[in-house]
Amino acid sequence: MQVKGSRFKVCSLAPPASPALPAPPAHILTLLLNLERSDVTQLPPEIANLSDTEKRSLLAKLLRDKARQERTFPLSFAQQRLWFLDQLEPGSHAYNIPVAARLSGELDVTALESALNEIVRRHEVLRATFQTDDRGDPVQVIEPELTLSLAVIDLRARLQTESEESVVRERATQEAQHPFDLSHAPLIRANLLRLADAEHVILLTLHHIIADGWSMGVLVRELAALYEAFSQGEPSPLPELPIQYADYAVWQRQHLQGETWDSLLSYWRQQLGGSPPTLKLPTDRTPSADNPPEGATLPLKLPAELSPKLKKLCQEEGVTLFMALLAAFQTLLHRYSNQEDILVGTDVANRQREETEPLIGFFVNLVVLRTDFSGNPTFRELLRRVRQVALGAYAHQELPFEKLVEALQPERQANQVPLVQVLFVLQNTPMPAFETSTLSLKSVEVNDQTSKFNLGLFVGDREGQLVGNWRYRTDLFDTSTIERLSQNFAMLLESIVANPDTRLNQLKLEPETNNKRKQRSPRLKKLKHTKPKAVSFPSEDLVKISDLEGESFPLVIQPAAAEVELAEWASQNREYLEKTLLQHGAILLRGFQTRSATDFETVAQGICPHLFGDYGDLPRESINGQVYGATPYPAEQAIRFHNESSHMHCWPQKLFFCCLSAAQEGGATPIVDCRRIYQQLEPEIRDRFERKGLMYARNYTEGLDVSWQDFFHTDDPSQVEEFCHAAGIEFEWKGDNCLATRQYSPAVIQHPQTGEKVFFNQIQLHHIACLEPTTRSSLLSLFSPQDLPRHVFYGDGTPISDEEIQAVLATYEQEARRFQWQEGDIVILDNMITAHGRDPYLGDRKVVVAMGEMISKQALS
Fold first, then answer.
1. Among 2.120.10.30, 3.40.830.10, 3.60.130.10, 1.10.3210.10, what is the CATH number of 675-816?
2. Which residues on adjacent β-strands are paired with residue 311?
3. What mean pLDDT is predicted for residues 241-247?
4. Do domains 275-436+445-514 and 675-816 have the same CATH topology?
């Protein structure tokens, strides 16, 4: 039993001898199996007080001793849906799962058949039949024994006159299309095609009601291990399974009740409430409602160089490959349909509990991902929307799709999956390959001539390259239409990775498709082709350049004439401002009469078109559009020097500050050139920081510092975990809803444009030596250094001494530059060159912030 905070998770069920305990009531088994969601106090004291190892032992004993006298079990919700579909359309092969693999080398057919039968023995679901009880309800009945015959079909004579590829394809298709009778076992078939003495193809076909895609990986892995053992005369090397699929079916019906059920259903009602729109893609024909839809597949062809570029974008944005591909696919559907509300289905493994991972069974669930395309966002902005949608779906994936449909009761059409007509799947559970001293196995593609959805896209990451297939209904689409769609998707992906900050309606597709899109007005076309005027130096009659009190840090730009429109001037002189910012690190725009947050945002967007409004690790007050209030912090306390979000996996390259109201006294935003810090630090200290890097330690405890809910902008722990995985953050849940994280970051980094080294970090905001002495003493009396709300160590976990911190602080103060805010001032910082802080102040002070050009440490590496 693994304990993670207040959550229990069954991880290993092969324990030592169990303690001598009285046999507990049956409900105790349910509690032990469901400790992650159960109240441990419900357990009797003699069990609740057991150690983790003893609980694990007891659980395994109960499962082993269960005896399984009853052979009849309820169906899982997913199984029940397939059973009903089979009753409506008996003899259909639509839910067959075909698998084919080529076996090269000397094959022991007897050992192979024995391995298959051992798998059938291990997994009860492979011995299941589906009957009705006295009330007419479907049940699954587990046969106590079942022998699977491996049919050997010798094709050697036929292959003398016919091509191997066509013969194998024909046999595989015939086998895949042969239906099952759910009332008779087995619901798995095995055929062996003999092509030559040392060349065979094995065809395995299972009904979906007893297996899913993940199960195929389990089956092949077990087949490999068992064949290798049996072919050498050795016993099975596999441990007994602690639970069976029927146990999961029973648990699922007990689990999805009460508050759990209400919470899941409430979420999905909110996501899909009202009347979810039907996706209206242009088709070649009107679908037929009379005949079951037939399908075809077409390979997805993508350039080899596309994959690393897309993965780099994922790293920059802290999203998964699935999220990026989903966003691109939904963009394609948006562009084809001109709809702004796009629903796509996807398969989730639905095996959150580790004890389900080694099982063969029908766990997979269909979830609906609904994305809002309103406002014509950039692709980067869309990624954030898709990320939020996907994380929410992951966290609520346990609600069976069939129960969701039952609750929402959407309008249904013949031969259509309700709610979604299009499927997207990232195939990250590929058929494993295996090789012994005499035999190797390689997957063979089977042409599935069915399509449950109008259109499906299946993508996999194979050896660093994106590969995949389109599956489509042939009564709706011609092959040429899907070929054109595939070409457009490839072009769209190339356009996305080339410039993810492009608006969706401007991303490139094939011209033929672009012409079908909504026509832009002549005025918008004219605006689209208007480019900022590039100049080498700003016009002297419009602005004047000066130093501030004899220092060129920051450089000051002021109007030379009253009629200068700052937003227009900044947009037209963006290239000059970019070069100047790289040289000086900070620019102060003074005297331009910027009076509102709207004025400020217009100026900032003229310089940095793609501002990032929803970024930040502290709660901020939204002021206007992409403009936010400064970090809330007591006026009487200083905010120490830091580079914005340099402790995170990504950070803004540019920062903009605007003073709407200056403080009565104090309140400066001191700045420091981090190139100078790197140069002026004692070499021994600097080199140590550069060599070791940093480990930022956070312990999010309610009432101390920022909460994890505010930091990660969610109340859902699963979304936090997803973010941490994507961002490379180590995390651990502790008691009392506390979260501990460890983030590894550099202390010194090389600027991506200038190549200069900069001291780039948030040491002063994290190290306890930077706190007031009384605050520091108080915290150290309550916490060890590792358990402080926030702290920073060297990257190897060793402490950074107070003396080293004092040397850093002294260098910053020596290099600091201060100026008093004037109303309307705008300061632009290169966040990697310039660190900033905030001095204490008296009176009202309102400084608003914007940021943009996100960059990640993965991208730099």
1. 3.60.130.10
2. none
3. 91
4. no
Query: Who's near 466: CB < 8 A, 6+ residues apart?
Result: 300, 302, 306, 307, 310, 325, 459, 460
Residue 759's pLDDT is 97
Number of residues that this document lists for the chain? 861
CATH H-level, domain 72-248: superfamily: Chloramphenicol acetyltransferase-like domain (3.30.559.10)
The pLDDT value given to residue 520: 34
Query: Which residue type sits at 40?
Result: V
pLDDT tier at 558, thresholds 50, 70, 90: very high
Question: Whole-angstrom Cα distance, residue 672 to residue 689?
Answer: 18
92-102 pLDDT tens trace: 888 999 999 99
**Tens-digit pLDDT profile for residues 613-672:** 655 554 455 555 678 887 778 888 899 999 999 998 889 999 999 999 999 999 999 999
Domain ranges for the chain: 2-65, 72-248, 275-436+445-514, 545-633+651-667+821-858, 675-816
Which positions ≥6 away from 631 have C-beta within 8 Å? Answer: 616, 618, 620, 639
* pLDDT tens-digit series, residues 377-394: 999 999 999 999 999 998
- Distance between CA atoms of 274 and 295, rounded to whole angstroms? 31
**Full-prediction pTM beyond 0.85?**
no
d(CA 64, CA 691): 53
The beta strands (E) that lie in 261-395 are given as 295-300, 341-348, 365-372
Superfamily designation of domain 545-633+651-667+821-858: Clavaminate synthase-like (3.60.130.10)
Which of residues 623 and 583 earns the better pLDDT score? Answer: 583
Burial of 104 (0-12, 13-18, 19+ CB in 10 A): middle
Check residue 609 and give its pLDDT.
Answer: 76
In angstroms, rounded to a whole number, what is the distance separating the alpha carbons of residues 620 and 191?
63
- Please tell me the least confidently modeled range out of 85-94, 97-106, 242-251, 661-670: 85-94
Rounded Cα distance, 270 and 268, in Å: 5
DSSP state of 371: E
Detail the DSSP E strand segments found in 293-399. Answer: 295-300, 341-348, 365-372
CA distance 369 to 638: 45
Instruction: For residue 97, list its beta bridge partners.
Output: 206
pLDDT tens across 767-813, in order?
999 998 888 888 888 888 998 999 999 999 999 999 999 999 999 99
- pLDDT per residue as tens digits for the range 675-710: 999 999 999 999 999 999 999 999 987 767 778 888
pLDDT of res. 859:
63
**Eight-class DSSP state of 503:** B
User: What's the rounded Cα separation, in Å, for the pair 852 and 628?
Assistant: 12
- C-alpha distances out from residue 391 to 43, 378, 587, 700, Å: 33, 20, 39, 21
How many helices, marked H, and strands, marked E, lie in the chain?
27, 36
d(CA 756, CA 662): 34
Q: Of 172-176, 781-785, 833-837, which one has max mean pLDDT? A: 833-837
Task: Give the C-alpha separation, 307 to 300, whole Å.
Answer: 13
User: Do residues 505 and 527 make contact, with C-beta atoms less than 8 angstroms apart?
Assistant: no
CA nearest neighbour of 805 among 663, 561, 656, 641: 641
Q: Domain 275-436+445-514 maps to which CATH number in 3.30.530.20, 3.30.2350.10, 3.30.559.30, 3.20.20.70?
A: 3.30.559.30
Q: How far is residue 760's CA from residue 749's CA, in Å, rounded to a whole number?
A: 6
Tokens linked to 360: 């063969």
The 10 Å Cβ neighbour count of residue 253 is 14
**Does a cis peptide bond (omega within 30 degrees of 0) precede residue 785?**
no
Which helix (H) or strand (E) is 832 found in, with range?
none
Are 244 and 63 in contact by the 8 Å Cβ rule? The answer is no
Residue 27 has pLDDT above 70, yes or no: no
